[in-house]
Write a structure and sequence with these properties.
Number of strands: 8
Order of helices and strands: HEEEEEEEE
Number of domains: 1
Distance between the termini: 30 Å
CATH class: Mainly Beta
Helix content: under 10%
Radius of gyration: 15 Å
Mean pLDDT: 90
Low-confidence stretches: none
CATH topology: Jelly Rolls
Oligomer: single chain
Strand content: 35-45%
Structural class: mainly beta
Largest sheet: 8 strands, mixed
CATH architecture: Sandwich
Number of helices: 1
């Protein structure tokens, strides 16, 4: 059985997708698989302390340096590195010295502010 070009899986250029937006703390969906979403986000400064009751999150840095603060310490995540934050673990993402670009991989049910809610909650994510 042959596939035509319109049904073939498509490659995604992270650089092209990051070039489509400038806003911070507003994840954009760039792919979906098995109930998971691949999201891109640009961040600057501190976010909010939060946790996710039912979802693990993967944060992969593609530009800058992400500081992930936890109640009992912190980790620095550099370009080409990722960290997985297990469900239930409170965390605070920080782009301390420069804008950070990151890829997120998490279940489609994940709300960016988790249990914290508030003004930074993005309930309708844009698809790029």
């Amino acid at each position: 059985m042959s596939q035509n070009a319109s049904t073939l899986p498509q490659t995604v250029s992270l650089q092209e997708k990051f070039a489509l937006f400038t806003d911070h703390w507003s994840p954009k969906i760039v792919g979906e698989l098995n109930g998971q979403q691949v999201k891109l986000a640009k961040i600057s400064g501190e976010f909010v302390w939060h946790a996710h009751e039912h979802e693990d999150e993967l944060f992969m840095v593609t530009r800058g340096q992400l500081k992930m603060r936890f109640r009992d310490g912190e980790q620095l995540i550099n370009v080409g590195e990722f960290i997985i934050v297990p469900r239930g673990v409170e965390h605070l993402p920080i782009a301390e010295t420069e804008e950070v670009w990151m890829l997120l991989f998490e279940p489609a049910s994940t709300v960016n502010t988790g249990t914290a809610g508030g003004e930074r909650t993005v309930s309708e994510l844009e698809r790029l």
